[in-house]
Amino acid sequence: MIKPVGPPENAGGYSGLVHPPRDRVASMMEKRIVLPSVAIFLVGALAACQPTVKIEAPDKPIEINLNVKIEQEIRVKVDRELDDLLAENPDLF
Asked: Is pTM beyond 0.70 here?
């Protein structure tokens, strides 16, 4: 739509319409068509580039195979005096 350009109607009695030059109209029309298209494209591109992370439970059970060797060693140390005491009194216990 071509918008009339000029002074307001009651400004000095001028009531005529002045049309902008064709180049300017083409430029305005091009901006009205191109800018929304670019904006829509950019919004779509940003929406498409959003990273997504999906977390899903596995269908099969998880198997963990471990080869573990467990050794346990208990050391009892008896003081030398206690050994001597037991040796002197074998009937103590």
From this structure: no
